[in-house]
Design a protein that fits this description.
The chain is an alpha+beta fold. The chain is built from three helices and eleven strands, in the order αααβββββββββββ. The chain has helices at about 10-20, 25-30, 40-50; strands spanning about 60, 70-75, 80-90, 95-100, 100-105, 110, 115-125, 155-160, 165-170, 180-185, 190-195. A five-stranded antiparallel sheet has the order 1-4-7-9-8, with no helix packed on it. Strands 2-3-11-10 form a four-stranded antiparallel sheet, with no helix packed on it. A two-stranded antiparallel ribbon has the order 5-6. Strand 10 and strand 11 form a beta hairpin. The protein is globular and about 45 Å long.
Length: about 200
């Protein structure tokens, strides 16, 4: 059936419709998505961010002090788990190393720890004041903090405080890299920080 166009406007409209209909589908299709997935890229960026370059050998700063330990805290971070020791004073030393077992100060009793590796953390300061009164009194000496759900930490336990130093046992998932440093404050206090990475 033929169609007769009575005006030039009708003819132009018909020709335009025919021209569009003749185009390949790909030429008129609208892309459903223009952005590629970034899952792989994000994972690579995260891995690069978490390149700690730490080691697993002993770290120590031998500096005996009368500044007393007042608290132990832990926290989770993107690339590592952290334990912080609050000290009522400045210039406190430390000695941190992987050991086969952690033992209590004075008595020598074994400190049982969960995990594939054990870090012995010695704070060169007592957990008591000049009169022998405790400055840090945990509710549970076998579980100083709750580390359930942590990627690296498995248990934090007390090894006691004896002759001016305090020992903490830290059970970790495996022998992973760690770092130790000190921070000043708040006020006249200071902190010893131990970070253990989630991976090498």
């Amino acid at each position: 059936m033929s169609t007769i166009f009575t005006t030039r406007k009708q003819l132009r409209t018909a020709l335009a419709v025919l021209a569009v209909a003749a185009l390949p589908v790909a030429a008129v299709a609208v892309p459903s998505a223009v952005a590629k997935t970034t899952t792989g890229t994000a994972a690579q960026a995260s891995a690069a961010t978490c390149s700690t370059h730490w080691g697993s050998l002993r770290e120590a700063k031998i500096r005996p002090s009368l500044a007393a330990l007042t608290g132990v805290r832990t926290g989770r971070h993107a690339c590592f788990d952290r334990i912080v020791f609050d000290v009522a004073g400045k210039g406190v030393g430390y000695d941190v190393s992987y050991v086969r077992n952690v033992y209590q100060d004075g008595s020598g009793f074994l400190v049982p720890l969960r995990g594939g590796a054990k870090l012995q953390i010695i704070v060169h300061g007592p957990a008591y004041d000049d009169a022998g009164r405790p400055t840090y009194r945990p509710a549970n000496r076998k579980e100083l903090t709750n580390v359930s759900g942590y990627r690296t930490f498995r248990q934090v336990a007390s090894g006691g405080s004896f002759e001016g130093q305090t020992t903490i046992g830290l059970g970790v998932r495996a022998r992973l890299p760690f770092r130790v440093f000190t921070l000043a404050g708040p006020g006249s206090h200071s902190r010893i920080v131990v970070d253990v990475a989630h991976r090498w």
